[in-house]
């Protein structure tokens, strides 16, 4: 994703029009348009103001990877983070509760749960028991779904 595309995505995520951003930065509307379409780039001082105003990392805007971090954030994850930051406390609480619930409900397989020889889940591990219970509960549905 280019600098201009990222700038536009961050601006849109912030709910701003080009004209609003231009007014805040004291630049012409066409200047913001030129940044977004790749015709020009902002000066360093303006760039840092942009990043702060739009709550984005300069490293993300410039596609620089943080050498100390092994965790890559996808553009989709970044977009979700930006949306989350703009929620009120009630909205954040709803997202947190949903995420906590889904995380608890989702079985997480680790190498400790997998039999090295067969590649299957070891019996009597939480993941194996949960999958077995799911299969038993949904056996009829699965059988009917796969009939020819």
Structure in words:
The chain is an all-alpha fold and 148 residues long. The chain has 2 domains: 3-85, lambda repressor-like DNA-binding domains (434 Repressor (Amino-terminal Domain)), CATH 1.10.260.40; 110-148, no CATH class. The chain contains 8 helices and no strands. It is elongated and about 65 Å long. The two termini are 44 Å apart. Mean pLDDT is 76; it is low at 109-114.
Topology diagram in text:
Elements: H1 3-13, H2 18-25, H3 29-37, H4 44-54, H5 58-61, H6 75-85, H7 89-105, H8 126-145
Task: Please give a quick description of this structure.
The chain is mainly alpha-helical. The protein has eight helices and no strands. The chain has two domains: 3-85, 434 Repressor (Amino-terminal Domain) (Orthogonal Bundle); 110-148, no CATH class.
Largest sheet: none
Supply Rg. Answer: 23 Å
Mean pLDDT over all positions: 76
**Strand content range:** under 5%
- Topology order in helix (H) and strand (E) letters: HHHHHHHH
Tally the structural domains: 2
CATH class of the largest domain: Mainly Alpha
The name of the CATH architecture of the largest domain is: Orthogonal Bundle
Task: Indicate the overall shape.
Answer: elongated
Give a count of the beta strands, DSSP E runs of length 2 or more: 0
Distinct helical segment count: 8
Q: Terminal Cα separation, in Å?
A: 44 Å
Sequence stretches where pLDDT stays below 50 over 5 or more residues: 109-114
CATH domain topology of the largest domain: 434 Repressor (Amino-terminal Domain)
């Amino acid at each position: 994703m280019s600098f201009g595309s990222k700038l536009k995505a961050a601006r849109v995520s912030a709910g701003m029009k080009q004209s609003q951003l231009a007014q805040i930065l004291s630049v012409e509307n066409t200047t913001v348009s030129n940044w977004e379409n790749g015709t020009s780039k902002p000066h360093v001082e303006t760039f840092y103001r942009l990043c702060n105003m739009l709550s984005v990392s300069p490293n993300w805007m410039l596609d620089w990877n943080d050498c100390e971090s092994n965790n890559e954030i996808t553009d989709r994850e970044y977009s979700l983070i930006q949306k989350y930051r703009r929620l009120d406390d009630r909205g954040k609480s709803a997202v947190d509760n949903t995420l906590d619930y889904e995380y608890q409900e989702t079985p997480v397989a680790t190498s400790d749960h997998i039999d090295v020889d067969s590649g299957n889940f070891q019996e009597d591990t939480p993941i194996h028991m949960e999958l077995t219970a799911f299969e038993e509960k949904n056996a009829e549905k699965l059988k009917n779904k796969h009939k020819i």
